[in-house]
Amino acid sequence: MQRFTIGDAAELAGDVGPDPRLIGVLAELDAPIDLDRLRTRVAERIGEQPILSRRFVRQGKAAWSASWEQVGIDVVDHVFAVGADDPVAAAVEVMVAGLPETIPMWRLLVLRSPGATHLLFVAHHVLLDGATAVAVVGSLLGADVAAERPAPKRHWTAILSLLAATTRGSSATSLLTPLTSGFRLGSVEVDLGPVREAARRAGATVNDVLLVAIADAVRTVAARRGERLRRVVASVPMTGLPTDPGGRNQVGAFLISIPERLPDQTDREFLGRLAVRTRRRKLLARGSSGSFALSAVLAGLGRLGWYRPMFERQRAITTLVTNLRGPVEPLTVHGVGVRSLTPISPALGNVTMVFAAVSHAGRLRVTARLDRSVWGEQDVLTDALRAALTRLAASRV
Predict the structure, then answer these.
(1) β-strands 363-370, 184-191: how paired?
(2) DSSP string covering 154-168, please?
(3) Pairwise CA distance, residues 251 & 253, whole Å
(4) How far is 110 from 36, CA to CA, in rounded Å?
(5) How far apart (Å, rounded) are the C-alpha atoms in residues 25 and 31?
(6) HSE of 120, CA atoms in CB hemisphere, 13 A
């Protein structure tokens, strides 16, 4: 048995619903795949991923009192096929239903629908984070996909990491409303190359481009409701260094306020100014190893039963944005190609639109997880997001 780290405890404390705190990656295949061969592949490679042999054991109400236990893996319990008329809807159903705690909380499902086959990897966020999930899926499928490894943290005071999690807060909006169970996914996919080049010209990153495009899309939805968002505030997770070979869960976050664009600002100028802001915020977020202070606060809220009530009323952030670096080359499984990867992130409190992006073989896919309260505006959101990404990728001045 191995006791939880404070990062593990923070993740478990956040599993307060209305849906389980699960992450997922949905892969679209270009041909059917044989289940028995897939199970054989996973059985051969499971030893390379000891994180998948851990289950957590609760030992009281406090999340930090839980422990990890290494157990044997029967691939039949984790890798199986499901019929699905709509693979995306089936993936949502799996993530809403949750996973049992009696075995390690992950699954690799073959979703068989008429004319298409998908693979869904789903896991509890306390088991692994998004960057690790992409690497784990790549390993199980036979590809070398390295999880993101930031530069070593400087051991400054924990106050800095808390400062990275503070802003003036989001503009008032009806988009912040307590979540209900169940969600929909809306996705937009573009070429990664032009996005990366546009970011480089502005002295920015792909993540900066995503933040601007997502803020534009969120503002478009708000405008349809007659609201003006002067400040769209995004919470952006940052994955830290692993505490041991089995897991990571040193995930901090920084908040970044994306203001309205000035009338005379070009896309390039706006991107450049936002890039300065994000660099400063990242520097603060890296101020303490593992964001210990923030994790301790979150774990404490869970112990007191305040986590869900507090986050259902929060007005600090407008949305959550995760960007994952996926494989550069196309993934294949036993000769079956992967056409696309769709990331699925958990939601929080009253944030009705959560965004996750992943790159794969020169393409960038952005997925929006939508609460029921914004289902009617799904097309407005995705159309605005696609238009913003296309515009930013083409910007040269």
Answers:
(1) antiparallel
(2) P---THHHHHTT--S
(3) 7
(4) 11
(5) 18
(6) 27
Handedness of CA 303, 304, 308, 312 (dihedral sign): negative
C-alpha distance from residue 129 to each of 60, 86, 108, 134, 279 (Å): 24, 26, 16, 9, 22
The secondary structure of 119-143 as a DSSP string is EEEEEETTT--HHHHHHHHHHHTT-
The pLDDT score that the predictor gives to residue 135 is: 79
Q: What is the pLDDT of residues 363-374, one digit of tens each?
A: 999 999 999 999
User: pLDDT (tens digit, 9 = 90+) per residue, 237-287?
Assistant: 876 544 344 445 555 678 999 999 999 999 999 999 999 999 988 877 665
Residue in 375, 325, 338, 340 with CA at minimum distance from that of residue 190: 340
Please, are residues 308 and 332 in contact by the beta-carbon 8 Å criterion?
Answer: no
The answer to whether residues 322 and 236 touch, using CB atoms and an 8 Å cutoff, is yes
pLDDT at 113 over 50: yes
Q: Looking at the predicted structure, is the pLDDT value of residue 151 above 80?
A: no
Distance between CA atoms of residues 367 and 84, nearest Å: 20
DSSP characters for 63-117? GGG-EEEE----HHHHEEEEE-SSHHHHHHHHHHH---TTS-SEEEEEEEETTEE
Per-residue confidence at 157, pLDDT binned at 50, 70, 90? very low
* Beta bridge pairs of residue 186: 368
pLDDT for the residue numbered 85: 92
**What is the rounded CA–CA span in Å between residue 211 and residue 323?**
10
Strands 106-113 and 79-83: parallel
Q: Which amino acid is at 131?
A: A
Mean pLDDT throughout 287-314? 79
CB half-sphere exposure, 145, CA atoms < 13 A? 28
Residues 6+ apart with CB under 8 A from 43: 75
User: Using omega within 30 degrees of 0 as the cis cutoff, is the peptide bond preceding 178 cis?
Assistant: no
DSSP secondary structure code for residue 34 in this structure: -
Amino acid identity for residue 80 in this structure: F
State pTM to two decimals: 0.91
Distance CA 38, CA 32 (A): 11
Measured at the CA of 374, the angle between CA 373 and CA 376, to 5 degrees, comes to 110
